[in-house]
Amino acid sequence: MVTTTAYTPLRRSRSDRMVAGVAAGIAQHVRVPPTFIRIAFLALLAAHGLGAVLYAIYWAVLKDEDTEGRVHRDFARIVPFAVLGVGVVVIMIMASGADGISLAAGWLVALVVVGAGLIWHQAEPSRVTRFGRVLTDRRPTFVLSLIGGGILVSVGVIGLATVYYPGSRGPSLSVVALSALFAVIALAGVGVVAAPALWRTATALRAEKEGRIREQERAELAAMIHDQVLHTLALIQRNSADPATVTRLARGQERSLRNWLYKPMGSASEFFGAAVEEAAAEVEDTYAIAVETVVVGDREVDERTRALVAATREALVNAARHAKVATISLYAEVEPDEISVFVRDRGAGFDMSTIDDNRHGVRGSIVGRMRRHGGRADIRSEPGEGTEVRLHLPVGPVKEVTAT
Amino acid sequence: MSDSESPAAQPRLRVFLVDDHAMFRAGVRAELGVHVDVIGEAATVPEAITAIAAERPDVVLLDVHMPDGGGRAVLDAIRRTHPAVKFLALSVSDAAEDVIGLIRAGARGYVTKTISPDELAAAIRRVAEGDAVFSPRLAGFVLDAFASRPDATVADPELDQLTNREREVLRLLARGYAYKEIAKELYISIKTVETHVSNVLRKLQMSNRYELSRWAADRRLV
Hints:
The complex is a heterodimer.
Chain A: H1 22-30, H2 34-45, H3 50-61, H4 75-96, H5 100-122, H6 125-137, H7 139-164, H8 173-238, H9 243-261, H10 272-287, E1 290-296, H11 303-322, E2 327-334, E3 338-345, H12 355-358, H13 360-372, E4 376-382, E5 386-394, H14 399-403
Chain B: E1 14-18, H1 22-32, E2 37-42, H2 45-55, E3 59-63, H3 70-81, E4 86-91, H4 96-105, E5 109-112, H5 117-128, E6 133-134, H6 136-145, H7 157-160, H8 164-174, H9 179-186, H10 190-206, H11 210-218
Parallel strand pairs in B: 1-2, 1-3, 3-4, 4-5, 5-6
Helix pairs in contact in B: 2-3, 4-10, 4-11, 6-8, 8-10, 9-10
């Protein structure tokens, strides 16, 4: 046998096994010859089958050694141990005499434990996914069968006990109670044996659940890309001869993607910032132009701020119509006592002295509207230098501030 | 006024591109070719770190979002070994946490990929000279982060607050004004505008204001 100085984890041995490799595994772990361990198990067999029960528990709990392929065991080597085991059992039956029946009961219990171990042993990580699916998809069924199985086992044990103690002339209450107690203990024992396997199952389940959440997120993203992006790309290809339409489509798609990615913003009917961005978006869509919007601060919309948004929109429309540029800058800042909006382009500009007669939009929709709501509008423009519309609206303190 | 406006007077800048989109790299290379020397490009983080360490460009144009840690990973690796290399972040993203995160990691400016070639060339030159480059949106973020809210705790007034002048400059930047126009509007020199913006950049990188930490932490960038 190879003696390694390194620490050997407690595993079932596959290379040196006789029955399931438990003894050889323990021997490798504590570094003694495996024969000692095997004889120890056989000796414990004499204690009402304890050796067999221990062996079954070890088998259920310990993992396989990681060896590739299947190793054939040498059946000839099992013979002496088997003979020894049978000898131990025979001696025990002869020595205990009248206790033979309860010994048989002990063996029955050992068999049940081995059976349980076998079942949980099947639930190793490689097979646990399938097992986990059974658990999640049909959880009520599983719980029902668990309860049903428990009742069956209890009844069985109680019945066994009453059958084996016929001396008390029919089932007496104390015997039933005692049997019920032992049934519970037996079930707890099975639970202890099953705990590692259950733990493994729970871990696998958690991983599977996380995977499913990720999959759901991916599906949501895929749906969004399909509904919006692919659709826009198709439209762009169809309109590739018309630069204005292409720009508008690309710009609109960009905006919607940005909103989706970065800002779950308040609605335009509630917040000034969102209302300004919405107005800019409308102008972008209508006039195929880019509005570089920067909003600093925010507050709730009321009638006067709505008027400010309308004036802003009008200023943007004017710039889009007359400036003949590709980009307009829009800056809005909300301060505690005033909201300011600046709409600026570097376009054609105009002579200020001519605006009163020709530009009703400027005079009525911007200057007049601001004045009616207690604000003011300044317009600066020079031919060739571009235009800037400055809107100022004094506002009262926001609600939170008045409360202090 | 300032000779920084005349590129011909200076040696051509050596610029390195880091971006995982080949089409975008090709576009930028073609557009920038007349203004600067594009000496190399990289598509991945490890590639970029090796090539930048070997080539030592004046300015690195850095994409924010890339596999394996993104622009932030490149910044961290290079700034430890080659502090002289300057970084200009370039991204399609306008998310505050991306922008603020990159600046706090050491980039000297942030522009979006929709910037015009001339503006990009000017931004590269400005970064190479040690100044900062703020897009309107970045200026907006900074104003938002440094807003004087009544409940904001100010640990270090020197770093956690903007001066009135800096605020004015940032407002004009957010309104789409160029440095030259800001100088004219405020009756100061372009150099003074640049100084104000650089001071804001320093505060942005050093300040521990809650808003800045929060934005950066949203993407685990600090």
